């Protein structure tokens, strides 16, 4: 398996992977929504606020994950939020998702990012170092529909104190439907 952080040239394939993978697991409405989100993240986000990591096997796209910046008004620490995450349907349950996320977190850590957040199923994300956080300690950009899915981890030796909000997400995520 090879990892890549280049996304402009692969943007269409990456968006299609999100559409197909979420359609298979959650239906076509969700597939279209997440595919469109991935496309907008790649098209509209300034590159310094976006990190996309992909996993490849013999030229085939096996998985893709997207991190985008969360900015905290009262806090200088650098925070990225992970999502969406998808592995090609026929390649799921082969550890690709976990390896790709671990790779992405390692790169962010090397860049000096202080905190990674995500919003999803704790049973999966706990396997790659995330644990439950509260909206009080890490303010989310919108009130969360599923606060039990709000997760995070400190990278590096950032001061492990609550982050001072309010927080703001990138424009593609600026819709309560995603939160
Ligand atoms: C979720 C997803 C990214 C996981 O990638 P993957 O490569 O299949 O996962 P891995 O092989 O690294 O890890 C598999 C383990 O994670 C767990 N897991 C996988 N998907 C899970 C899910 N949706 N919820 C909870 N646990 C999950 C499984 O229990 C599995 O462990 P097991 O085989 O011992 O039971 C992939 O299944 C996927 O693309 N799903 C559709 C899109 C999606 O739901 N994205 C995440 C939204 S939060």
From TrEMBL:
GO molecular function, one term: acyltransferase activity
Keyword entries, A-Z: Acyltransferase, Plasmid, Transferase
InterPro entries to which the protein is assigned, alphabetical: Acyl_CoA_acyltransferase, GNAT_dom
Alphabetized Pfam families for the sequence: Acetyltransf_9
E.C. numbers: 2.3.1.-
Keyword Transferase listed: yes
Taxonomic superkingdom: Bacteria
Residue ranges of domain N-acetyltransferase in the record: 1-156
Name of the protein in question: N-acetyltransferase
Species whose genome carries this gene: Aliisedimentitalea scapharcae
